[in-house]
Write a structure and sequence with these properties.
The protein is mainly α. The protein has a domain of 29 residues. 84% of the residues lie in helices and 0% in strands. The radius of gyration is 32 Å and the shape is rod-shaped.
Length: 75
Amino acid sequence: MPGWTQILIVLVLIVLLFGRGKISDMMGDVAKGIRSFKKGLSDEDEVKSAQPEPKTIDATVAREESSEKNKASHG
């Protein structure tokens, strides 16, 4: 496991290689990605809640009504 001094040296090398501006830009991009991901999740939840529940049809009632109509038209 790396010690604190090794971690500090690696961080200093990263800052020297990329520069502070580049690192802050990358962190900003990561933050934007996280925000858009969270927004996408909340939008998906809103779409699911906005959709109406499917209506169920009682097939027995529909059959009885159609048979009553057939009886009335034939008799």
